[in-house]
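Table 4 source record.
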Amino acid sequence: MKFYVIAGEASGDQQGALLMRELLRRQPDLEFVGLGGARMHALAPGVEDWAEQAAVIGVVEVLRHAGYFLRRLDEMERRVAEDQPDALILIDYPGFNQRLAQRVRRVSPRTRIAYFIAPMVWAWHRSRAPKLARLLDLMLCTFPFEKPIFEDAGLRTEFVGHPLVDDILAQRRRDVREPGLIGLFPGSRRREIERHFPVFLDVVRAARAKHPSWRFETSASSPKMEELMRRMTEAAGVDPGLINVRRGSYHDLMDRAEAALVASGTATLEAALHELPFALVYKVAWGTYWLGRLILTIRFIGMVNILADRPVVRELIQQDFTAEASLAELERLMQPEVRERVLREMRESVSRLGYGGAAAKAAEAILAMVGPDFRPMTPRWLPEPS
């Protein structure tokens, strides 16, 4: 059987690789084709590593690269039409993947379509769920509150838990915390680093006088991002000895750090699973920010807070993300009583994600989807002939 699989960005590549590994464990002769990152490519050479080009965020940035993404959509549509694969597995990355699902449904009606890591319709427009029900055969949810939303729209849905639970439990090291070590996680994309890292450097500079025993460390996602952060450190006039810029496993840093500043995204959930007290930070282009304010219907942007439905971790967004506010929050998190309370509430929040086996459950559901007995809840949507 041939499966097309599509992921964008580092987190999608990570979760896609976990899923592919479980599928291959059950059916070793599966052929994978598509787009992903280095981990997915290592498992299947037919999956192109496009993660660096795909890592675009925000309305302004996406519009700037619209031509590139349209060409990739055209390419994928053409290849699917030729191959007529058994399944298309879409992993997160909703802007691209939902458009591809529409095209695939038209050019390859035999292809079953599954979505792993559901689009966050609950955050901006629940009315999108019925449209997804007409496009997809199966939704694989990672958060428990998503299942009734999609099922009520007529989409066969499985809550499988979050694959990060398995991934982090397998590699997490306990009892290695280093007192006074502060982890800085600016994000994996160039644009995120360009917006967040200057504030981090200001925090490092301000902390030098107030907390001389503190040490700062950051983890770069690639050699290019490591070089970028080193250049930014030099340009800002910050002594390189005050911040350790490393390339490699940020999971190791999450195990060792005593507190952290973490850019919004998958990394905040990972920090919670590592039981690392942190403040969530984020900046985007102002146009993207105001558009988000108009369409988002949720109180929080951090999944730890969304799961708990209360502010477990502090969210420093846009103009609130300053060196002064960040340093004050780190000082608060270093207080033993605050630290224990935050850790207790984080554990309670992430316990709602399930207790492992997400990728395995998703693999089983996908293989059942391509079997002869599978029936979608909603009749397949086919566009009107042009």
